[in-house]
Design a protein that fits this description.
Elements (H helix, E strand, L loop, with lengths): L2 E7 L8 E6 L2 E8 L2 E6 L13 E3 L2 E3 L6 E3 L16 E2 L1 E4 L2 E6 L7
Antiparallel strand pairs: 1-10, 2-3, 3-4, 4-8, 5-6, 6-7, 9-10
């Protein structure tokens, strides 16, 4: 069952840079671009590098390890070597706070 999880105040997210957030067993790369906020799985589908550390270019984030780009809206790769998309999460901004809708994951103990 999905849950809407508060991840940060909007004012705490830097414009044009990624932030890594861990919530409900998910590792999430959150990006604020002007007035929009995007959330993707924080692991490149090619080499598992952190996308939160990547640079933003024209609506995409570039993986810092091998340069694959992922669309912020769809998670689809736009360049090699990645060929698989990364998960995208629904984002809502309410009363100055950013929320992401997540399915809780089982975490091994």
């Amino acid at each position: 069952m999905s849950e809407k999880v508060r991840i940060a105040p909007l004012a705490d997210l830097p414009d044009g840079r990624g932030v890594r957030v861990d919530a409900f067993g998910h590792r999430i790369a959150v990006f604020r671009v002007g007035g929009e906020v995007f959330a993707l799985a924080d692991r490149c589908s090619h080499a598992e590098a952190s996308l939160a550390d990547g640079e933003l270019f024209d609506g995409a984030v570039e993986c810092p390890r091998h340069g694959s780009e992922f669309d912020l809206r769809t998670g689809e790769p736009g360049s090699f070597p990645a060929t698989k998309p990364v998960e995208v999460y629904a984002v809502a901004v309410e009363d100055g706070d950013v929320f992401v809708t997540l399915e809780p994951l089982e975490v091994a103990s």
